[in-house]
Amino acid sequence: MSIRKMELEDLRKVVELEHALFLSPWSEEDFSHELKENPMAGYYVLEKENEIIGYIGLWFLGDQCQITTIATDQKYQGQGYASQLMEYTLEKSEALHYQNVNLEVRVSNVKAIALYEKFGFKNVAIRKRYYSNGEDAYLMIKELEG
């Protein structure tokens, strides 16, 4: 198992996973923009036996890290791989002395909410009609030592 920086060559597989997993998936252009144009972005893939089975997107914003996306291939869900991505993110954020890590999550995404709560994230607000289908999102934050 390894986590490494996402490369443009990874986008075909990442977008394939994105479309299989999300109601409002990001496009290849969205990911490409993040990799090439966004100096605050850090995107990483999780590989098992040279196969991309998950990924996480981060924005490094001043004193905080925002998780923009996290996904694990459906056939590997429930096996701790999303937890590995979360641990990687928290370790990276603490090493950079950030004060918190935050994210938005669909109010209906019970599995993801349970994962975030396991890592100490707290629901601090609701973002009304945050998603393109009108669904609300929870804003969740994990405070760090900073």
Automatic annotation (TrEMBL):
Top-level taxon of the source organism: Bacteria
Organism (species): Faecalibacillus faecis
Record-level GO cellular component terms: cytoplasm; ribosome
Reactions catalysed: N-terminal L-alanyl-[ribosomal protein bS18] + acetyl-CoA = N-terminal N(alpha)-acetyl-L-alanyl-[ribosomal protein bS18] + CoA + H(+)
Keyword line: Acyltransferase, Cytoplasm, Ribonucleoprotein, Ribosomal protein, Transferase
Keyword Cytoplasm recorded: yes
The protein's name: [Ribosomal protein bS18]-alanine N-acetyltransferase
Enzyme class: transferase
Record gene name: rimI
Function, in words: Acetylates the N-terminal alanine of ribosomal protein bS18.
